[in-house]
């Protein structure tokens, strides 16, 4: 039922398709009913790949269950090999076909195909998509590189001094968030340091390339959810060290350069000096003070959540008030990260829990997946997408990495723009009733209505006003109390006043359940006169002021008293 509404991850066989589609010379034979072929749409419509995924379905139907479905799998595997001639064949079952217990991998091995057949046992009812991609990459790497591993206990020979250091880049897959551009950015960074990239996998690698994974001096792990298991095996089997820093943000990129230089045995000074993202300059500018202290909620896969929280706290001057992930395999890492910010992490793949957490925290900015974009829109909060799952608009044709120097610039643009554009939207609402900007007034450079021709309305006229007072001026210093750290809209700003619950015997609205102070209708209307990008801060300050003084009902006088208190 939840799959029909929303899910952050699909079943594990979708993860296997992501690996197979990212590689060259690999084909996936999936034992699945007719309805489980929807995964094609993810790649051709969302990622906009020019070719369909490297997968063949058996597509059995209800009438086929009365006979041997195993024969359908054998026929599909044979036909797939004859048509595509892959270097390696993956074989597995979808969540529905898993119930038939046909053993797809074992059946395919009996066919005697002249290429390696890698069976995938992906328990669909215990695991999900990201884990499925990780397991698929691991089994492929073991199948291809395993025969070339040295005997246990063999020491790795030292790199010749006359040879440049080499590395593999592990983790990028199909349908990953900006994986294509991240790979390009980090490859360029490594090559600028004099390091040769031997293999990138799974993306752009072939089974023959995987057989050579052990030749590199070390491994660069860009996406631990996908590559950590494989990197750990390579470290054990080939004595290959691996990186632990994901280069997202200025600080992490510099740490990454130092870590890579240490593994490669080179001096990082020249590279560190050449790093010149715009973010550090902006963080020291006057404009950045308008964003200092913004309250941020971060949610997504573990890699991007940990990196985004660090950038938000250390480089943007934000306050991380919420942190969470849907990837349960990395819950320990997220809990450790949350401790550094003094908050409780949210480990859940239920979007309703995520929505509830955002509504309770009332952040000024949400950094999340495409689902958080929808949630934030309903709550009236700015949002920037930082993690999969994502929609087609998050696979831009332009170059837009998240990692490295250029990635830091992209992060800066992506996160700052939703906050700064709020100022412009407020001006449109503020002047809505002005004689030059009302709905019947045309643009000033066109003919006026008096000439007999009605000019077209402004595009901005389609933006709804927040209320009858949308164009009224706010209290003279309502925003001055929080000018150094303005807030974006309060999620509850459009809800009916709590005072509507009913007055007590004295005619004053009663405090709801002895909890938070209750707003009168007049105070709520006065609050709406405050520009929306500082309204959330004004609401929180007023409620805090009332709570500290035991005031059960917030009136206009309370609002102004709180304003005067926090202005001092």
Descriptive overview:
[4Fe-4S] cluster binds at residue 36. Among the domains are: 12-147, Rossmann fold (3-Layer(aba) Sandwich), CATH 3.40.50; 163-276, Nitrogenase molybdenum iron protein domain (Rossmann fold, 3-Layer(aba) Sandwich), CATH 3.40.50.1980; 279-419, 3-Layer(aba) Sandwich (Rossmann fold), CATH 3.40.50.1980. The chain is 40% helix and 10% strand. It has 20 helices and 14 strands. The strands form four sheets. It has a five-stranded parallel beta sheet with strand order 10-9-8-11-12, sandwiched between helices. It has a four-stranded parallel beta sheet with strand order 2-1-3-4, with helices on both faces. Strands 6-5-7 form a three-stranded parallel beta sheet, sandwiched between helices. Helix 13 links the parallel strand 8 and strand 9 (319-325). It starts with a helix and ends with a helix.
Note the main attributes of this structure:
Rossmann fold, 40% helix, 568 residues, alpha/beta, 5-stranded parallel sheet, 4-stranded parallel sheet
Shape: globular
Rg over alpha carbons? 28 Å
Number of strands: 14
Instruction: Report how far apart the termini are.
Output: 54 Å
What is the CATH C-level name of the domain at 279-419?
Answer: Alpha Beta
Task: State the CATH superfamily name of the domain at 279-419.
Answer: Nitrogenase molybdenum iron protein domain
Q: Profile the largest sheet.
A: 5 strands, parallel
Q: Spatial order of the strands in the main sheet?
A: 10-9-8-11-12
Strand content: 5-15%
């Amino acid at each position: 039922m939840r799959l029909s509404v929303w899910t952050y991850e699909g079943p594990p066989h979708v993860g296997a398709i992501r690996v197979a589609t990212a590689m060259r010379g690999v084909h996936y034979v999936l034992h699945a009913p007719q309805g489980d072929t929807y995964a094609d749409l993810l790649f051709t419509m969302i990622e906009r790949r020019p070719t369909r995924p490297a997968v063949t379905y058996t597509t059995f139907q209800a009438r086929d269950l009365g006979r041997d479905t195993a024969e359908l799998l054998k026929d599909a595997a044979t036909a797939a090999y004859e048509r595509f001639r892959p270097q390696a064949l993956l074989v597995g079952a979808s969540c529905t076909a898993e119930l038939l217990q046909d053993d797809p991998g074992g059946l395919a091995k009996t066919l005697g195909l002249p290429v390696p057949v890698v069976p995938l046992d992906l328990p669909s009812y215990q695991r999900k998509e990201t884990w499925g991609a990780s397991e698929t990459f691991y089994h492929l790497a073991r199948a291809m590189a395993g025969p070339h591993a040295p005997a246990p206990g063999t020491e790795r020979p030292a790199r010749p001094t006359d040879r440049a250091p080499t590395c593999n880049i592990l983790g990028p897959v199909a349908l990953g968030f900006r994986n294509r551009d991240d790979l390009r950015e980090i490859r360029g960074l490594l090559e600028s340091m004099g390091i040769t990239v031997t293999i990138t996998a799974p993306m752009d690698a072939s089974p023959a390339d995987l057989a050579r994974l052990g030749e590199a001096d070390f491994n660069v792990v860009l996406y631990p959810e996908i590559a950590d298991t494989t990197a750990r095996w390579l470290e054990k089997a080939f004595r290959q060290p691996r990186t632990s820093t994901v280069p997202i943000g200025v600080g992490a990129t510099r740490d990454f350069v130092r870590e890579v230089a240490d593994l490669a045995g080179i001096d990082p000074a020249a590279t560190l000096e050449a790093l010149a993202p715009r973010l550090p300059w902006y963080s020291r500018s006057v404009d950045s003070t308008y964003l200092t202290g913004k309250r941020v909620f971060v949610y997504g896969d573990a890699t991007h959540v940990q990196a985004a929280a660090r950038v938000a706290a250390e480089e943007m001057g934000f306050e991380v008030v919420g942190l969470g992930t849907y990837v349960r395999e990395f819950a320990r890492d997220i809990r450790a990260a949350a401790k550094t910010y003094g908050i409780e992490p949210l480990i859940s793949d239920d979007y309703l829990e995520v929505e509830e957490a955002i509504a309770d925290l009332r952040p000024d900015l949400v950094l999340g997946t495409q689902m958080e974009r929808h949630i934030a829109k309903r709550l009236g909060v700015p949002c920037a997408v930082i993690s999969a799952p994502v929609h087609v608009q998050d696979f831009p044709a332009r170059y837009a990495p998240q990692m490295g120097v250029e990635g830091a610039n992209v992060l800066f643009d992506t996160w700052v723009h939703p906050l700064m554009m709020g100022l412009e939207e407020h001006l449109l609402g503020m002047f809505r009733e002005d004689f030059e900007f009302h709905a019947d007034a045309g643009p000033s450079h066109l003919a006026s209505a008096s000439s007999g021709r009605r000019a077209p309305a402004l595009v901005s006229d389609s933006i709804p006003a927040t209320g009858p007072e949308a164009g009224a001026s706010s209290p003279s210093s309502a925003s001055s109390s929080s000018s150094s750290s303005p807030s974006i809209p309060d999620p509850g700003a459009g809800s009916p006043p709590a005072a509507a619950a009913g007055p007590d015997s004295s005619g004053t609205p009663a405090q709801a359940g002895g909890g938070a102070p209750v707003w009168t209708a007049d105070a709520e209307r006065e609050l709406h006169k405050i520009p929306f990008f500082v309204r959330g801060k004004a609401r929180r300050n007023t409620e805090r002021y009332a709570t500290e003084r035991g005031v059960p009902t917030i009136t206009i006088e309370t609002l102004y008293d709180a304003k005067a208190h926090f202005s001092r």
